[in-house]
């Protein structure tokens, strides 16, 4: 003899799961962390020694003052508004040195896996901030320098692998990173 | 026609709402999967500077967050009454030497707890969430302290720049 099961009243279970849902909505965040990654240099005693060894043509000095203006190589002044438009091209030309000019950095020919021989620039960007520089300007400068490096990497990777740097396999990325390193040295501000 | 005649009592049939909880549970699981637990609330004002060349931060498990900005409410220690440093959920002291010690204690603590979990402490990324108005003198102190404690992987939190998007 079949007996009918009494139906369970499940209307409150929806309320319970609603409660759980709101709890998780409140305690969690969907903000994805994004930003400009940097590696700080290690502290070493030979730091000063190394800096003296670098030749003048291999350094691009960028000085950000307290009015958020930029002084490049002690001669060229960029106003705050011009940083976003001009700094990238200056940094790019410095790092690439396309015409092998005498006043731009030297290159060393290196053997890189996946690329063959590649002339790696010896250029170092030296970044100095005033104590009163705002963080926004600092990030703007860092962003422009990163953009210069990214564009060079994209160009190189289009030449060698036929696609943009972002889409490369990890080992290819490593090769490009070796070919175009990010050399930003930050002196302690005065 | 007697077949279509209705009974005198008119009663609404009960709506079966047993599947409603299933749907909400589905929502719940969806949110649990796509979100991460919030570890600390920022008690300092923090507006990230704009940038175009940002990268997404991976490995959310090994991130230590350091906030820097103007305090949101009274009672938070602030340097020159302008800048507070928040280390995950604690605040660094304002006096210069103690502040340095607080920061370095925080980094050491993070590295130790990371080592206890069996991971390499050098893989921790320090996410620096610094307000765009903060002056570099405070940022430099923080950076120097990070360097001295061998915490070299950092990330400057930035916001998407809508104007200059490619």
What does it look like?
The complex is a heterodimer of chains A (190) and B (166). With 190 residues, chain A is an alpha/beta fold. Chain A has one domain (48-186). Chain A contains 5 helices and 9 strands, in the order H-E-E-H-E-E-E-H-E-E-E-H-H-E. In chain A, the strands form 2 sheets. In chain A, strands 5-4-3-8-9 form a 5-stranded mixed beta sheet, with helices on one face. In chain A, strands 6-7 form a two-stranded antiparallel ribbon. The longest helix of chain A has 27 residues, at 135-161. The radius of gyration of chain A is 26 Å and the shape is elongated. With 166 residues, chain B is of the alpha/beta class. Chain B has a domain at 50-160: Nucleotidyltransferase, domain 5. Chain B contains 3 helices and 9 strands; from the N terminus they run αββββββαβαββ. Chain B has helices at residues 18-34, 96-116, 136-148; strands at residues 36-37, 50-51, 55-56, 63-69, 84-87, 90-91, 125-130, 153-157, 159-160. In chain B, the strands form 2 sheets. Chain B has a 5-stranded mixed beta sheet, with helices on one face. In chain B, strand 7, helix 3 and strand 8 form a beta-alpha-beta unit. In chain B, helix 2 packs across helix 3. Chain B starts with 17 loop residues before the first helix and ends in a 6-residue tail after the last strand. Chains A and B meet through helix 1, strand 1, strand 2 and helix 4 of A and helix 1, strand 1, strand 2, strand 3 and strand 7 of B.
Lay out the secondary structure.
The complex is a heterodimer of chains A (190) and B (166).
Chain A lengths: L10 H17 E2 L4 E6 L7 H7 L5 E6 L5 E3 L3 E3 L4 H14 L10 E6 L3 E6 L2 E6 L5 H27 L8 H10 L4 E3 L4
Parallel strand pairs in A: 3-8, 8-9
Antiparallel strand pairs in A: 3-4, 4-5, 6-7
Chain B lengths: L17 H17 L1 E2 L12 E2 L3 E2 L6 E7 L14 E4 L2 E2 L4 H21 L8 E6 L5 H13 L4 E5 L1 E2 L6
Helix pairs in contact in B: 2-3
């Amino acid at each position: 003899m079949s007996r009918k099961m009494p139906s369970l009243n499940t209307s409150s279970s929806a309320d319970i799961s609603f409660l759980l849902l709101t709890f998780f909505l409140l305690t969690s965040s969907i903000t994805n962390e994004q930003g400009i990654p940097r590696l700080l240099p290690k502290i070493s005693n030979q730091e000063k020694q190394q800096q003296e060894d670098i030749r003048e043509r291999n350094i691009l000095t960028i000085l950000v003052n307290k009015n958020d203006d930029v002084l490049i190589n002690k001669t060229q002044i960029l106003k705050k508004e011009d940083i976003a438009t001009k700094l990238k091209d200056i940094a790019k030309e410095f790092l690439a040195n396309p015409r092998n000019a005498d006043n731009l950095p030297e290159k060393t020919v290196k053997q890189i896996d996946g690329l063959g021989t590649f002339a790696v620039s010896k250029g170092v960007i030296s970044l100095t901030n005033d104590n009163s520089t705002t963080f926004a300007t600092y990030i703007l400068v860092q962003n422009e320098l990163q953009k210069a490096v990214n564009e060079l990497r994209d160009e190189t990777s289009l030449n060698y692998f036929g696609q943009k740097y972002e889409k490369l396999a990890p080992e290819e990325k490593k090769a490009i990173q070796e070919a175009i390193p990010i050399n930003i040295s930050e002196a302690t501000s005065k | 026609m007697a077949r279509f005649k209705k009974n005198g009592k008119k009663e609404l049939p009960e709506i079966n709402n047993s599947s409603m909880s299933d749907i909400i549970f589905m929502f719940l699981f969806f949110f649990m999967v796509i979100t991460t637990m919030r570890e600390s609330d920022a008690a300092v004002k923090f507006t990230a500077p704009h940038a175009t060349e940002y990268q997404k931060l991976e490995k959310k498990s090994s991130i230590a967050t350091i906030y820097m900005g103007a305090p949101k409410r009274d009672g938070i220690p602030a340097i020159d009454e302008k800048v507070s440093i928040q280390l995950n959920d604690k605040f660094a002291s304002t006096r210069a030497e103690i502040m340095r010690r607080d920061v370095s204690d925080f980094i050491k603590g993070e590295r130790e707890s990371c080592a206890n979990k069996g991971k390499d402490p050098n893989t921790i990324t320090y996410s620096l969430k610094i307000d765009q108005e903060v002056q570099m003198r405070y940022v430099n102190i923080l950076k120097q302290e990070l360097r001295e404690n061998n915490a070299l992987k950092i990330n400057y939190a930035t916001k998407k720049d809508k104007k200059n998007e490619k």
